[in-house]
Structures are given as structure tokens and as C-alpha cells.
Design goal:
10% of the residues lie in helices and 31% in strands. The chain is mostly beta strands. It has a three-stranded antiparallel β-sheet, covered by helices on one side. The longest helix has 7 residues, at 13-19. The radius of gyration is 12 Å and the shape is globular. It starts with 12 loop residues before the first helix and ends with a strand.
Length: 71
């Protein structure tokens, strides 16, 4: 498979980047998440925790933790 480009606003990580805070999604199998592009394909992902990685007051990345259980 090849990586897909997506806009920040079309990603789960986008909220963590824009707010600079940890964001929890307890159930991404709901209808409003169907068009989100940064959900791993082929996995039964239910919940996600997105944590911005900040260095020198700049967001340099996001750590996403996925689980197959509802949290």
C-alpha cells in the first residue's frame, strides 16, 4: 500500500495539532468518522488517543495509540 496525503482537518491527529492538547476518541466506528483518512486500514480500531509531540514550543508530530476496545 502507499501512504495517503490528507489535510490536517481531515485527520484524527489534526485536533491534537491545532489545540496542542491530547485528544481522545472513544469510538471512531461511528458515522462521523467514516471519511477520516488517518485511521489504519484493515484493522478493527475502535478507540484512539492522539498526543501532540511538542519541542521548543513547536508541534513536531503526533503519537496515536489505537485500540480495538471501546474506551
Amino acid at each position: 500500500t502507499t501512504p495517503r496525503d490528507c489535510a490536517i482537518e481531515d485527520s484524527l491527529a489534526g485536533s491534537a495539532i491545532s489545540t496542542r492538547r491530547q485528544v481522545e476518541y472513544s469510538n471512531i466506528q461511528q458515522h462521523e468518522f467514516l471519511d477520516i483518512l488517518d485511521i489504519p486500514a484493515g484493522l478493527q480500531v475502535v478507540s484512539v488517543l492522539c498526543t501532540p509531540l511538542i519541542v521548543d514550543d513547536e508541534v513536531v508530530g503526533v503519537l496515536n495509540v489505537y485500540t480495538d476496545r471501546l474506551h
